[in-house]
Amino acid sequence: GDQPLSTPDHQLFRTAVGKLLWMSMIRPDLSFTVKELARNVQQPTCENWHQLKHCLRYGAKTKNYGLQLRPCQTLCPTGSVEVECKAYGDTDWAGCRATRKSTTGTVIQVLGCTVQHCSRTQATVALSSCEAEMYGTGTALSEGLFVKSLITETGLGVAKLDTLTDSSVGKAFCGKTGLSMKLKHVQLKYLWQQHCFAAGDSRLSKIGTLWNLADTGTKYPTVEALARLLPLIGIVETVSMSANEKGMHLNCLFVCFSGSLSSAPVLQLSVAEAMASPAVAPSTVAVYVTVWL
Fold it and tell me: Would strands 158-165 and 82-92 be described as parallel, antiparallel, or unpaired?
């Protein structure tokens, strides 16, 4: 298992992981697995080779799955409508057996549509689950604030951000100000999130562990977890869609918000079709574009 790969296999490993990195941009269920594979591209072992083949078999079996965007609200021209943003954050404390670093997963949704997600290994070794959850909540909050500021600056509406975590102790720590005696070792640069919640930049809410969408970015998901969370994230099988719904399975995600249009019809177009369509006004703002290569 710890034996290094041969030079030809190493080249195949790097090529496959590079393509999976593109695929993971529109497949949140692959984000953790691809992140772990990418950590070992420099010196992959036979164990990493087996993990890669397992991931490729899953990808081949779910090749008809796509990220479906179905906004639940129509934006008005004045930009006075309230746009709901949710930032899900989760952490797997000390999940890496080699370094004992924790993993943070985030999923950002706007109007019920997943527009951003990530799976990251924390740079700092957390000495407690509370500390790890604090770092994870901070990542989710920062990603959510970016989307919130983008919506606000473009005049699309009044963005209301809700940061969700399934950790009671993490929520309690982020909801107060200052450090307790047991957390004096925590660096002060991570306490900015307490001021954000206190100032009302985001609401801090508790969510059940089973329904935390960011859970897919912190560990290898089980079959039960995938069946439960994929529909909530928006990943659906395209062969089960009707002809009209298949347009929402986008190899290129083109998220448009326009004051004069309902969002759903625009999302049924590919990038080329949307740009060529006379229904798309020049003032339409492309908020998030991911290109499938």
Answer: parallel
DSSP 249: B
> Around Cβ 285, how many Cβ atoms within 10 Å?
15
Measured at the CA of 34, the angle between CA 30 and CA 37, to 5 degrees, comes to: 150
**How would you label 129-139 residue by residue, b for 16+ Cβ within 10 Å and e otherwise?**
bbbbbbbbbbb
Give per-residue pLDDT as tens, 36-93: 999 999 999 999 999 999 999 999 999 999 898 887 777 666 667 889 999 999 999 9
CA distance 194 to 228: 32
Angle at Cα 215 formed by Cα 33 and Cα 171, nearest 5°?
A: 140
Angstrom distance (rounded) from CA 250 to CA 66: 7
C-alpha separations of 143 from 37, 108, 189 in Å: 23, 7, 16
β-pair type (285-290, 253-257): antiparallel
Query: Do residues 165 and 133 make contact, with C-beta atoms less than 8 angstroms apart?
Result: yes
Distance CA 124, CA 78 (A): 44
**Owner of token pair 């990418």:** 38
- pTM greater than 0.90 (yes/no): no
What's the rounded Cα separation, in Å, for the pair 292 and 250?
Answer: 9
The three-state secondary structure class of 177 is: coil
